[in-house]
Design goal:
Length: 73
């Protein structure tokens, strides 16, 4: 069975990878036209990933509070 700290670390790496992906997608925006359906789809994908990242960050905070012997931050 995985410990709470193992779960936190796994969730952290997944959130970090997602944040890097979002950063890359934002960087790609400069190569897209200023408007159009492709640009809108790209922006929507970025927003979806940001929402998922927010959920992961909430999960990280929740897991952090469950770590044994740690004071709340």
């Amino acid at each position: 069975m995985a410990s709470s700290s193992d779960s936190w670390i796994k969730e952290y790496y997944e959130a970090s990878k997602l944040a890097d992906d979002i950063n890359g997608m934002i960087s790609q925006r400069i190569s897209l036209p200023t408007s159009g359906s492709e640009t809108q789809r790209h922006a929507s994908a970025i927003r979806r990933k940001i929402t998922i990242l927010g959920t992961r960050l909430d999960s990280l905070q929740s897991l952090l509070l469950k770590l044994p012997g740690k004071q709340p931050m």
